[in-house]
């Protein structure tokens, strides 16, 4: 909104002041009777061209004249009013010269005491002749003329005239102009209009041509501001700017570190510390550390630059004592001479000899302050019983623009804005708001019982200042990682790096990883050169021997159903962290250190198989070696391989006996003997009990019956792990028996609600967990496939 009255351009606030003063005068009883008929006049005047003269506006025969508001109009082509000065007898004076160039001025005054009586000087006007010769009337208009009772005063107006002596010449029409009012915060900024100096803010620039103009504000220690303003005829354009201070940095360090830093007597942090957003100019840095002499230095900060202070502190040779502090309840915050020292109970050591103030604070309790005297090498004791507060807490509602600022209440992090913090102790608290890219804000707030205190802050955005890092290496083309982020390959310059410490890492295949920490200063390029050391890229040495056949048929051949023993290992100067041996991509076993090991496979099916050994050293170098074996099929066979399965108590476990009798042979008799322990019974109808705990199954396999599966069912009635011994062999009529195969079945019986153990063959998992009977069927199916391709020949 404009703060000017539309009639005459006088400020509304000035008129409000006048009105308020009238009301005050009325309330004080300053009442007088209305004046009689009176006169307001301005004299005629004659003046030379090019000079100035001063004339008076008088009120004659007035009684109790308390305030007036009059307008003087004239021909601006003849004269111009350049100064208006109301009489000092009136307490409040408001003179509007903004329209003087257009031919009118408005004058208003108010007397705080009683009204003026008799012949009274209202105002003086200083006139400037603007033409060579001419004449104009000075016309008086009364807007308001009142006594101290606010009654109107009737007055006769006697207008005057001005004659400019000289040759009358035709005055060209004046080019229309306006005015520009310029102010700044802080004031005192140098003002330039279209690069021409116009004074210091606040300033009003008159007679400005109509149109667009540039106004520039400059002040030492602040950023320059340039604005474009449009000037209209007879109007005042306003430029009001808040200047932004130029800032720099101060890097403060000390030996030893941990000294308190005071910047212009304001605590900042402890050394080492980079203090940002410091105003340009001269500042005082003070370092304080217990047991050391204080240090004070003056430092000059320049815009965008970092001033450095590094001090070696001088240790004080003084005697100290201790203070033992406890409270009931414990956990009260301890402040020694205003410095937080932890919580009760605690003994504060290295305290200077003399008198000190101890303050204890705990939420929900009254604060306690005590004075204690410390003597050299002695321990003073303070023990206090805290008094619980009997009043309810209050709350603090905190918001910011922008939102998302971190909130710290008395130094403790609470959340981000907006946030209402409840159960806050009654009393004075400190709220600090922090947000990346914005200046910190700290405010003190008083919390009252049962009430909510409000804190709202508009955060000031910081101008980001960055530096750069130039990185090179020998050899080049090393990958660059800054704070874990990939930045290209050497040589390269990493720009837009925020000031502070950063982690720099270089990686190149065949070379040892290179790490360092680099400190970046705004506006400065740090140069880093790395000499990379060659790395160990040699893989481990692998050993894998030819497998040894476990020849059950004693014929020197590797036949289906037989197993092999494999000796393998690995070694490396840097150490071995992993050795894995795989059979056809399935893991047989793994080791985690160098050495030589032996592993035995399960019974092998017919066909080709790949054995692979893979090793990894401590530098992550890996390699593998492979050998290939072939399993043959040579004649009739039976197979009831080592099998492990799991069932629920009361369920059946199904196993399969596989037999093969090629064409051309006589009928073949196969016999399977099972010896289950207590808790496991055989339920297959093809088995006959031939002794205590012994079950026998005899089957005849006809010639050409290349795959004859025989189902074997066992039921587990007792929870636990059961080992079931088995014997199997085959025989042709009266010919000798084949070698007897001795196998052991492992049966795990669980309660119905326990998880199912995955089916495994020879210790290697071959299927995922399936619930209940489905797991048994899946396990039997996998075993059947293996047995269908596994047959033994007759000796």
Automatic annotation (TrEMBL):
Record-linked InterPro entries: Carb-bd-like_fold, CBM2/CBM3_carb-bd_dom_sf, Ig-like_fold, PEGA
Highest taxon in the source lineage: Archaea
Key words, A-Z: Membrane, Transmembrane, Transmembrane helix
Record domain PEGA: where: 178-246, 248-315, 321-388, 394-460, 467-534
Gene3D superfamilies found in the cross-reference section: 2.60.40.680, Carboxypeptidase-like, regulatory domain (2.60.40.1120), Immunoglobulins (2.60.40.10)
GO MF, any single term: carbohydrate binding
Record carries keyword Membrane: yes
SUPFAM superfamilies (alphabetical): Carbohydrate-binding domain, Starch-binding domain-like
Residues that span the membrane, as ranges: 770-789
One Pfam family from the record: PEGA
Name under which the protein is recorded: PEGA domain-containing protein
UniProt source species: Candidatus Methanogaster sp. ANME-2c ERB4
């Amino acid at each position: 909104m404009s703060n000017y009255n539309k009639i005459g351009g006088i400020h509304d606030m000035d008129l409000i002041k006048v009105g308020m003063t009238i009301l005050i005068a009325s309330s004080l009883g300053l009442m007088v009777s209305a004046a009689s008929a009176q006169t307001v006049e301005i004299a005629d005047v004659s003046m030379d061209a090019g000079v100035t003269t001063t004339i008076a506006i008088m009120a004659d025969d007035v009684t109790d004249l308390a305030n007036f508001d009059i307008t003087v109009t004239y021909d601006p082509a003849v004269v111009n009013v350049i100064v208006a000065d109301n009489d000092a007898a009136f307490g409040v004076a408001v003179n509007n010269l903004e329209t003087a160039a257009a031919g009118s001025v408005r004058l208003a005054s108010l007397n705080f005491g009683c009204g003026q009586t008799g012949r009274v000087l209202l105002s003086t006007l200083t006139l400037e002749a603007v033409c060579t010769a001419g004449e104009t009337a000075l016309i008086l208009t009364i807007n308001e003329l009142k006594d101290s009772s606010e009654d109107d005063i009737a007055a006769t107006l006697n207008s005057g005239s001005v004659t400019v002596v000289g040759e009358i010449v035709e005055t060209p029409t004046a080019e229309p102009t306006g005015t520009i009012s310029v102010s700044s915060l802080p004031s005192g900024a140098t003002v330039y209009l279209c690069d021409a100096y116009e004074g210091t803010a606040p300033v009003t620039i008159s007679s400005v041509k109509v149109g667009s103009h540039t106004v520039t504000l400059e002040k030492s220690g602040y950023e320059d501001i340039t604005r474009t303003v449009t000037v209209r005829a007879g109007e005042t354009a306003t430029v009001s700017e808040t200047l932004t201070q130029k800032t720099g940095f101060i890097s403060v360090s000390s030996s030893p570190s941990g000294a308190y830093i005071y910047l212009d007597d304001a605590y900042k942090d402890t050394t080492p510390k980079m203090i940002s957003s410091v105003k340009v100019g001269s500042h005082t840095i003070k370092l304080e550390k217990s047991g050391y002499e204080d240090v004070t230095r003056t430092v000059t900060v320049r815009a965008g630059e970092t001033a450095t202070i590094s001090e070696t502190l001088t240790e004080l040779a003084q005697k100290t004592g201790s203070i033992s502090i406890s409270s009931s309840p414990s956990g009260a915050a301890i402040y020694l001479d205003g410095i937080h020292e932890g919580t009760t109970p605690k003994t504060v050591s290295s305290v200077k000899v003399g008198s000190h103030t101890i303050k204890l604070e705990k939420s929900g309790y009254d604060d306690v302050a005590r004075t204690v005297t410390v003597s050299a090498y002695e321990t003073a004791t303070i023990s206090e019983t805290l008094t619980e507060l009997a009043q309810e807490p209050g709350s603090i509602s905190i918001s910011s623009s922008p939102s998302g600022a971190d909130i710290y209440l008395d130094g403790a992090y609470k959340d981000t804005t907006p946030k209402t913090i409840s159960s806050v102790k009654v009393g004075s608290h400190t709220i600090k708001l922090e947000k990346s890219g914005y200046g910190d804000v700290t405010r003190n707030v008083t919390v009252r019982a049962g009430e909510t205190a409000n804190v709202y802050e508009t955060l000031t955005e910081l101008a980001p200042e960055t530096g750069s890092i130039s990185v090179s290496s020998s050899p080049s083309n090393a990958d660059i990682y800054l704070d874990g982020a990939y930045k290209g390959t050497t040589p390269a310059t990493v720009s837009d790096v925020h000031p502070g410490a950063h982690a720099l890492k270089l990686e190149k295949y065949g070379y040892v990883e290179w790490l360092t920490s680099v400190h970046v200063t705004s506006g400065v390029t740090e140069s880093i050169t790395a000499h990379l050391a060659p790395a160990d890229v040699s893989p481990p040495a692998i050993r894998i021997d030819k497998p040894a056949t476990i020849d059950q048929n004693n014929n020197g051949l590797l036949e289906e159903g037989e197993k092999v023993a494999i000796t393998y290992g690995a070694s490396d100067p840097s150490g071995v962290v992993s050795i894995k041996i795989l059979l056809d991509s399935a893991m047989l076993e793994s080791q985690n250190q160098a050495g030589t090991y032996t592993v035995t496979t399960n019974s092998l099916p017919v066909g080709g198989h790949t054995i692979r050994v893979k090793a990894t050293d401590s530098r992550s170098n890996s390699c593998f070696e492979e050998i290939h074996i072939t399993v043959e099929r040579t004649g009739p066979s039976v197979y009831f391989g080592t099998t492990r399965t799991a069932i629920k108590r009361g369920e059946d476990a199904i196993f399969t006996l596989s037999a093969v009798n090629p064409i051309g042979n006589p009928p073949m008799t196969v016999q399977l003997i099972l010896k289950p322990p207590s808790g496991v019974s055989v339920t297959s109808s093809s088995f006959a009990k031939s002794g205590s705990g012994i079950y026998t199954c005899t089957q005849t396999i006809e010639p050409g019956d290349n795959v004859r599966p025989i189902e074997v069912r066992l039921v587990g009635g007792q929870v636990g792990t059961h080992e079931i011994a088995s014997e199997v062999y085959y025989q042709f009529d009266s010919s000798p028996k084949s070698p007897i195969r001795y196998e052991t079945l492992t049966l795990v019986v669980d309660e119905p609600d326990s998880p199912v153990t995955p089916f495994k063959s020879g210790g290697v998992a071959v299927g995922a967990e399936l619930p209940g009977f489905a797991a048994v069927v899946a396990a039997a199916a996998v075993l059947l496939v293996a047995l269908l391709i596994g047959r033994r020949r007759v000796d």
